[in-house]
Design brief:
The complex is a heterodimer of chains A (116) and B (111). Chain A is an all-beta fold and 116 residues long. Helices cover 0% and strands 47% of the residues of chain A. Chain B is 0% helix and 55% strand. Classes of the chains: A mainly beta (116), B mainly beta (111).
């Protein structure tokens, strides 16, 4: 089974520029998550999609971050304009939604973003 | 108080040692408990997934959940250099809700 694919692996931009990340979840996984992992911290959820609908975006800084999941498969996360504090690894995860006790989330290797 | 607290590291042990990693939490609504392993420059990899209280064993790994004490543990037996990584505890309230992570602890197993 192919894992969660993310690109690019690394991105360096200057503050106030824009950047976009792409995620392709595991085939058949209806739920997709974007997490932000700052160095030395655990991942923090930014947004959760169920198919192409948003389930939870309460921690997404909506003045600069946006995300979409067209057709309920691939997803993109965008930052515009970027700030220095956005330097982090952006992780995408996906899970199935079958079973009363849910399914574990599987993570991609992330995009490492550096803001200069 | 953070929702999930994880023992600070780093932790260094000799090969073959038994390792104990721990997390405490404050939200009594958490029902699903996970341990992830994260190698440098890689994404978190699921190690253990448990529901409610009790023990779960998988090879050299044992996960324990004590909901009455709001405490979870991961034990690694016969630790190997390949176990050197950051270990993250994570938990969630519902079957498909978001994960809340601890900060992670970096483990180094010396040959």
């Amino acid at each position: 089974e192919a894992g969660v694919a993310q690109s690019p692996r690394y991105k360096i931009i200057e503050k106030r520029q824009s950047v976009a990340f792409w995620c392709n979840p595991i085939s058949g996984h209806a739920t997709l998550y974007w997490y932000q992992q700052i160095l030395g911290q655990g991942p923090k959820l930014l947004i959760q999609f169920q198919n192409n609908g948003v389930v939870d975006d309460s921690q997404l800084p909506k003045d600069r971050f946006s995300a979409e999941r067209l057709k309920g498969v691939d997803s993109t996360l965008k930052i515009q304009p970027a700030k220095l504090e956005d330097s982090a690894v952006y992780l995408c995860a996906s899970s199935q939604t079958t079973g009363a006790r849910g399914q574990p989330q599987h993570f991609g290797d992330g995009t490492r973003l550096s803001i200069l | 108080q953070k929702e999930v607290e994880q023992d600070p590291g780093p932790l260094s042990v000799p090969e073959g040692a038994i390792v104990s990693l721990n997390c405490t939490y404050s939200n009594s609504a958490f029902q699903y408990f996970m341990w992830y392993r994260q190698y440098s420059r890689k994404g978190p990899e699921l190690l253990m997934y448990t529901y409610s209280s009790g023990n779960k064993e998988d090879g050299r790994f044992t996960a324990q959940v004590d909901k009455s004490s709001k405490y979870i543990s991961l034990f690694i037996r016969d630790s190997q250099p390949s176990d050197s990584a950051t270990y993250l505890c994570a938990m969630r309230t519902g079957a498909n809700s978001k994960l809340t992570f601890g900060k992670g602890i970096t483990l180094s197993v010396r040959p």
